[in-house]
Amino acid sequence: MPLVVQKYGGSSLADAESIKRVARRIIETRKAGNDVCVVVSAMGDTTDELLDLAQEVSPLPPPREMDMLLTAGERMSMALVAMAIANLGHSVRSFTGSQAGVITDASHGRAKIIDVTPGRITEALGEGHVVIVAGFQGVSQTTKEITTLGRGGSDTTAVALAAALHADVCEIYTDVDGIFTADPRIVPSAHKVDRISHEEMLEMAASGAKILHLRCVEYARRFDMPIHVRSSFSPKEGTWVLTTTTEGDPVEEPIIAGVAHDRSEAKITVVGVPDEPGRAAQIFRTVADSEANIDMIVQNVSATETGLTDISFTLPKADGQAAVQALQRIRGEVGFDSIQYDDQIGKLSLVGAGMRTNPGVSATFFKALSDTGVNIEMISTSEIRISVVTRSEQLDEAVAAVHTAFGLDSSEGEAVVYGGTGR
Amino acid sequence: MPLVVQKYGGSSLADAESIKRVARRIIETRKAGNDVCVVVSAMGDTTDELLDLAQEVSPLPPPREMDMLLTAGERMSMALVAMAIANLGHSVRSFTGSQAGVITDASHGRAKIIDVTPGRITEALGEGHVVIVAGFQGVSQTTKEITTLGRGGSDTTAVALAAALHADVCEIYTDVDGIFTADPRIVPSAHKVDRISHEEMLEMAASGAKILHLRCVEYARRFDMPIHVRSSFSPKEGTWVLTTTTEGDPVEEPIIAGVAHDRSEAKITVVGVPDEPGRAAQIFRTVADSEANIDMIVQNVSATETGLTDISFTLPKADGQAAVQALQRIRGEVGFDSIQYDDQIGKLSLVGAGMRTNPGVSATFFKALSDTGVNIEMISTSEIRISVVTRSEQLDEAVAAVHTAFGLDSSEGEAVVYGGTGR
């Protein structure tokens, strides 16, 4: 019997009615002749409410206790979904992350899945139960403590379980119809993409597209697990995230998958760094030790008369304070002048596997930005992505301009197969 | 170092402020030179809210999933209390019932504690942590499933842990000052009792006094664990529940511990039962098989001319419907006429170890009821208790009359040592 792993997020589980609707959806899949294993997030705003409660009790709660608290959220939703399924006359068992065999490292609040040992799940599926699993949580291999995977961790749970159970597909249910060519709140003419490669999805997620969590896509790519991102409010097909086939007519593949944007980062500029070997290494070692995730890096051309240079990089705003403090401590040692912190930046990324073979993409991209009067502060590229940093207030305009320039606008909301060459 | 086990109920943990107050109270005990292990219930109305949510999703949720759901309540409160303690600068670890080694049978929703294996607790206490444990929950020895002990189960968790850890005292914190001679909402002149024996407390709890759960007191008596029932809102001493010492001057011990009442029961009368051996056994076997807990039983004198008799018994209202249905199924077999169901009854119980040696107690008791015009429908007694069933609407008046007749009224709210003899 085919095995489908489904994941429902908090917005699909907002209240009792939503839970009942999700239960009916699960049972439809079951009745269509599939074994079903379902991963659930916490209901609606539960996680935020628990975070608020924690904040009221303690400004700096111990991470171990935070994980104890937050894991209550999925525990509630998994039990309620199981009850709703039982009420439809189907046998069902719910399991916590720990019971489901989600083994992690010991990093409370952002644990990584090390292994999945789904013995109880396999057994329950074999006995004919629908299985519900609490997403976002696991148990540490070394300390036996309860851990959480961090925000978005339920997607990762679903893909990891799907891989461990050798599922046929991992369906991620959300409150939108799938992956769009851009955020429809910014670009109303953005349209749903029918198919996207793991690789492109990875770049989109890394560039700020919030539908799928980066780690989840990494996991899916590693285990070659097809993901079907779709709406829990509609029966329509969503977006399939698949391994790129080398077959197929490349002319029919869209060059560009979409335009992602991100306002969650800040820029730090270290001003007046002596232009000597090892200085940059010292700086980035220090930032990494403060546990900040560095994204883009730019080093200006050295001003030869002074022998000094500026180094800029971007990182999540949440990591900004710690990084600045860490850098200030090594100022004397490295010998730089000052640190500038700028959290009014935005990042725009154009993603598409077709870039590899279409050399005109970057020209079109920069012309679109230039025509709109957008000032570019930083640039970084991969084989299938171009990202730029702009002022935050210019970001929406920039996204719309790039979306239009690549012919992604669609009044019907249908996917456009874009096959132009040499632009 | 002395070890104190404390238990805080939901009303002491209503919100973030209450949780912080409880944390300060725990730390006071710690600073006074004790190891402290704290058992917590779910916050305020959490359990009721979860029950409501379950009801919205399914009218008859599977008990296994219900336990999964409800155990989230204590999980949240234990983590929050731990955070509040950490915020006061003390090291702390919270543990679920399962982690704390609370081993139960497999009866979801009303599991019994079979064993307590508090290895992780002992270890954490040894490392100098304050320990917080989720009450009301455990893990089944046979199925490894999460179980709950039923309402009031957190008290039982606390006493069971106290016994397993060889604690010096088990403090039960609540929203009243201790055990009262009667419910102060019915008898405003009721006063707090300073000391009460395990045996008397057992009768009080079985008779409807709601401060301590019956099973908790049974556990405390079996393991000879002193319980200190006190208010979490005041530093005053509460009521000590202790093993009766054979020493001490009996004249100084109060004859009567208090007057309990109970409106949670109903009366079933099986009318026209053939007065033959084995009929009553058939009836009570059937009721027991419906999982109803029978309390009092009365069999009327047989009417010799008909050879028929009536059998009445009381049971929790919650069990009433199942019992009536079970009895109706054996009507033909047993050959009785009809079943009467009456849920407008009230039970009044007078409890006191001094009754044993004071033969006048029952005379005073029945005279008080008679003077007030209360009609008695059933009577049952133990060595240290007399209970009567009356009409529900006469119960308050009856409680007040008995309270006064035994000199328990006190305008100052102070404990009265009642040493009369031979009444």
How would you describe the overall organization of this protein?
The structure is a homodimer of 423-residue chains. By secondary structure, chain A is of the alpha/beta class. Chain A has helices spanning 16-31, 46-57, 63-87, 119-126, 153-164, 198-206, 214-222, 279-289, 317-329, 331-334, 361-371, 395-405, and strands at residues 3-8, 35-40, 92-95, 102-104, 113-116, 130-134, 137-140, 146-148, 169-174, 195-197, 227-231, 239-242, 258-262, 265-274, 297-299, 308-316, 338-342, 345-351, 378-382, 385-391. In chain A, the strands form 4 sheets. The first copy, chain A, has an 8-stranded mixed sheet with strand order 3-6-2-1-9-11-12-10, with helices on both faces. In chain A, strand 4 (102-104) and strand 5 (113-116) form a beta hairpin. The longest helix of chain A is centred in the N-terminal third of the chain and has 25 residues, at 63-87. Chain A is globular, with a radius of gyration of 23 Å. The first copy, chain A, starts with a strand and ends in an 18-residue tail after the last helix. The model of chain A is unreliable at 246-251 and 412-423 (pLDDT under 50).
Which structural class fits the helix and strand makeup of chain A? alpha/beta
The amount of helix of chain A comes to 25-40%
Strand % of chain A is: 15-25%
As residue ranges, the low-confidence spans of chain A are 246-251, 412-423
Most extensive chain-chain interface:
A-B, 35 and 35 residues
CATH overall fold name of the largest domain in chain A:
VC0802-like
What do we call the CATH homologous superfamily of the largest domain in chain A? VC0802-like
Q: Give the mean pLDDT of chain A.
A: 91
Quickly give the CATH architecture of the largest domain in chain A. Answer: 2-Layer Sandwich
Characterize the largest beta sheet of chain A: strand count, sense, and whether it forms a barrel.
8 strands, mixed
What is the top-level CATH class of the largest domain in chain A?
Answer: Alpha Beta
Q: State the distance separating the first and last CA atoms of chain A.
A: 47 Å
Contiguous helical run count of chain A: 12
- Count of beta strands of chain A: 20
Question: What count of domains describes the coordinates of chain A?
Answer: 2
Q: Give me the Rg of chain A, rounded.
A: 23 Å
Overall form of chain A: globular
Walk across the major sheet of chain A and give the strand order.
3-6-2-1-9-11-12-10
GO molecular function (chains A, B): aspartate kinase activity; ATP binding
Domain ACT (chains A, B): 268-344, 350-423
Family (chains A, B): Belongs to the aspartokinase family.
Protein name (chains A, B): Aspartokinase
